[in-house]
Amino acid sequence: MAIPDPIVEGLASGWHHIDGSHLDAPTTLEADVVIVGSGAGGGVAAEILTQAGLSVIIIEAGPLKSSESFNMEERRAYPNLYQQAASMKTKDKAIGIFQGRAVGGSTTINWTTSIRTPDEALRFWGAEKSVSGLTSDILAPWFERMERRLNITEWSIEPNNNNLALKRGCEALGWQHTVIKRNVAGCWNTGYCGMGCPVNAKQSMLVTTIPAALSQGATLVSRVKVTKIEHHKQQVFALKAQVLNDSLMPTGVEVLFKAKHYILSAGAIHTPTLMLRSKLPDPYQLIGKRTFLHPTLLSGAVFNDAINGHSGAPQSIYSDQFVWPNGASGELGYKLEVPPIHPVLIASKTLGYGQSHAQLMAQFNQLQVTIALVRDGYHNDSQGGQVQLTDNGFNLDYPLNDVFWGAARRAFASMAELQFAAGAKQVLPMSEGVGPLSSWAEAKQAIAEMTLAPLKTIVASAHVMGGCPMGEDPAMAMVNSQGQSHYFDNLSVMDGSIFPTSLGANPQLSIYAITAKNATALAQRLTSAQ
Ligand SMILES: Cc1cc2nc3c(=O)[nH]c(=O)nc-3n(C[C@H](O)[C@H](O)[C@H](O)COP(=O)(O)OP(=O)(O)OC[C@H]3O[C@@H](n4cnc5c(N)ncnc54)[C@H](O)[C@@H]3O)c2cc1C
Prior knowledge:
Layout: H1 6-12, E1 16-19, E2 27-36, H2 40-51, E3 56-60, H3 74-81, E4 88-89, E5 95-97, H4 119-128, H5 136-149, E6 152-154, H6 161-173, E7 178-179, E8 181-183, H7 209-215, E9 219-222, E10 224-232, E11 235-244, E12 250-264, H8 270-277, E13 291-292, E14 296-302, E15 317-318, E16 334-337, H9 343-347, H10 354-362, E17 367-374, E18 386-390, E19 393-397, H11 402-421, E20 426-429, H12 440-449, E21 459-461, E22 465-466, E23 491-493, H13 508-528
Parallel strand pairs: 1-9, 2-3, 2-12, 3-9, 5-21, 12-23
Antiparallel strand pairs: 4-5, 6-8, 7-15, 10-11, 11-12, 13-22, 14-17, 14-20, 14-21, 16-17, 18-19
Helix pairs in contact: 2-7, 2-13, 5-13, 6-11, 11-12
The site of flavin-adenine dinucleotide (FAD) has 42 residues, from helix 2, strand 3, strand 10, helix 8 and helix 13.
């Protein structure tokens, strides 16, 4: 049975799509609003502004790919759909970062976990970061709106064995756990969300807001990368962009975009990189600083029975037992989840080489993996990373300090305790120098004594946040609480870069709801000025 592909059908119906790789001469494009990036922020903003009657151009550096080409193979998905073919790393290479680069941004390849912004985060932002008007009550209708729009509902199907182990461990220990809400409609439970949903069940921006915007006349420009924001006094007057070829290398052809209003939705790291490269005013030196990752530790566990963590909804249970142990600014907390277990993804995040690695991979189908996402950005000694320009790109300098390693050690202990309580026969904290552990008593001692250090301990992130913080006080924020620049009348930022701290929860729903609120306010402002 052929799966209907909304992108193929939409293009056939006459959507305005310009594949930059086909442009061979300099071009200027104009609209009421130009949006840089087509992910969680860009997608939602595009739909709302188009619905308000404004002409919109969405610019995306990545390609337009759709279910027609999503073949559930890691070797194709990572180079096609991820930044740096899924091998992006921090400056010292100690943290691996996953981020999307295709139409739909990271939502095209994310794992569908949808969680509202924790109240603790919102209260901290109000009290400490000069954010105004973002309380759980004020945001509730925006969460409801986006939950309806993206069919976000509790996953009612039996979790896969990877998630079931998390649930069983929590039950045995009396720890808090929750069934995850997912943005899916008619999900086949394949477990391949991270390679682009092959059946268009995931309600990513690729199959929801972007098609809606295009159906109402918006223009999508793919394989074009914005390189510079041209500005003068308090106005942005153009965006300069490079055309990219099939391999996403610049062809030398330039495109100029002109608009009444400009929105940056290139995501954390890339929005700040673009701002730095364009030398936007930054009297308090904020751009790119306080970039957060939820730096994530992994613990493997071998079970007697098959886990088959590649199959079934990747994430369907989480535990918040340890996220806010002593209030927001107390010791760093961590959220417990599981990742999908696909061979390349896991082989690159496990330890050893040669025989020991081969032995571990031979038990691949019995391998359960638990992850602990550390909540960064609240404690005084948790300042996140800093985006820095290099000659041909950027670096994210994210030093891992003692406060982080303290949380990491606690997280490894919690994960081992949980995995043994769930019935694991061996637990393997993903940090060099510690072998497979056979009991909770043995693990407790080994984890208390093990050396944790950059490049010895595996740390990863799929949640990039911050670097262009929001707030009313320009001394600590680049944009106000509506995402409007403090320095330019016609520039907004709508993506994960505006979070003043990490969230302590998976980010997509926070970006959807806050963007929906801010884009609606912007649409009212722009249409009433017409
Ligand atoms: C593997 C993976 C799994 C994840 N799972 C979950 C999950 O289950 N739940 C959850 O809540 N979150 C998850 N996330 C994170 C979530 O998807 C992101 O937080 C969210 O999509 C970020 O939205 P954004 O708008 O900030 O940026 P993105 O969605 O990343 O979109 C930014 C887009 O801008 C484009 N861009 C960048 N620079 C330029 C430029 N100069 N010119 C033109 N275009 C540019 C990029 O190519 C990209 O497509 C996951 C992420 C990954 C990578």
